[in-house]
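lol ok so funny story. i was supposed to be doing the assay writeup but got distracted and ended up predicting the structure for this chain instead. priorities right. anyway since i did it might as well share w the group, maybe its usefull for someone
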Amino acid sequence: MTVRRRVVVRGRVQGVFFRDSCRRRAEQAAVAGSVRNLDDGGLEAVFEGDEAAVAGLVEWCGRGPSGARVDSIDVIDEQPQGGRGFTVA
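and the output, tada:
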């Protein structure tokens, strides 16, 4: 089953290779979507793909790469849009 989830991560998540690490993990899991830094210092990612693969990425976002400090994570379910590829903004 294909699912889509938007994730907003707060904490020390910029300047720690979070976006690139997220992209690599998403590509390895064959999950589409995007990741970007937010103006308030947070990070937003959108994952679309197999339910188990997306769940794994959401779980990883709760930890992030080494050097990150995740204070909170919000997860929003969305309607799948047939996304392809993964982009970093």
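The helical segments are 18-28, 51-61. The radius of gyration is 12 Å.
back to the writeup now i swear
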